[in-house]
């Protein structure tokens, strides 16, 4: 699950940013950047979850 999240979260962040559209003249930050950063952060969390899950799998199989 973590690996899937790590791969798909940045893609969905980019998709959400493009669906948000162009910013208003008063907007300080482009919405696509905010959505993409949110996707990258969630992807990083997914990568950590996948790494920890892999470590747990290695440790569980080491004793056998």
Strand content: under 5%
Kindly name the structural category: mainly alpha
N-to-C terminal Cα separation, in Å? 25 Å
Q: What pattern of helices and strands is seen along the backbone?
A: HH
| Principal-axes shape call | rod-shaped
Low-confidence runs: none
Roughly how many Å is the radius of gyration? 17 Å
The profile of the biggest β sheet is: none
Number of helices: 2
Task: Describe the protein.
The protein is mostly helical. The chain has a domain of 41 residues. The protein has two helices and no strands. The longest helix is centred in the last third of the chain and has 32 residues. The protein is rod-shaped. It starts with a helix and ends with a helix. The mean pLDDT is 88.
Topology readout:
Layout: H1 2-20, H2 31-62
Highlighted features:
0% strand, transmembrane, membrane, transmembrane helix, single chain, mainly alpha
Provide a quick synopsis of the model.
With 64 residues, the protein is an all-alpha fold.
